[in-house]
Amino acid sequence: MSNLDLSLKDMMVIDGAIGAAVVDYNSGMALGTLGSSKALDLQVAAAGNTEVVRAKMRTIEQLGLNEGIEDILITLSGQYHLIRPMTGRKSKGLFLYLALDRTRANLALARHRIKSIEEELEV
After folding, report:
1. Of the residues 17, 26, 30, 121, which has the maximum number of CB atoms within 10 A of its CB?
2. Has this prediction a pTM greater than 0.90?
3. What integer pLDDT is reported at residue 87 of this predicted model?
């Protein structure tokens, strides 16, 4: 089993996880997905969240901030969507995406776990 597959499985064992993906934000394509919800199309989510990441990176650049994005949180009435751009030398241009059921998720724990997964993942 590849490191990518293991990372997706690790993301899916986070309490409340309903979908996970590793996405190339240059192309908008998911390198891998894993999900348990038929209501969440991870390919569409990957492409849509690519635009979110690109827009935020452009804004940071236009503001002249010397900062990197740790994560982006989108809260819906029933879900959390967590986006974490990867910072490793070999994983630049990728982000982790995790969708969580808001009623079952612990957001602080999910952020902590996804950070650990990002640090261990080699693509």
Report:
1. 17
2. yes
3. 87
